Amino acid sequence: MNRMSISELNEILVKATLSARQEAKNNGVPIVYEENEKMIKEYPDGRKTEIIYDEQGNKKEIEYHE
Fold it and tell me: Torsion over CA of 21, 22, 25 and 30, rounded to 10 degrees?
């Protein structure tokens, strides 16, 4: 069995991520990811919100500006 190099593994992970993002978009499903230490929800139309929690632990979404 051949071992994969780190660069080969990274290439597979990038392709899998892009494929999953496109599949979600095609199915009208938002994706959630971390960007700049913030939890971001991106909708199929390109709109982005930041997911935050208030003092009581209630989840809120606010408009996200890069």
Answer: 0
Torsion region of 22: left, alpha or beta (phi above 0 gives left; psi -120 to 50 gives alpha): alpha
Give the model confidence (pLDDT) of 10-55 as tens digits.
999 999 999 999 999 999 999 999 999 999 999 999 999 999 999 9
What's the predicted TM-score (pTM) here?
0.76
Q: How far apart, in whole angstroms, are the C-alpha atoms of residue 45 and residue 28? A: 9
d(C-alpha 57, C-alpha 48), whole Å? 21
Do the Cβ atoms of 42 and 31 come closer than 8 Å? yes
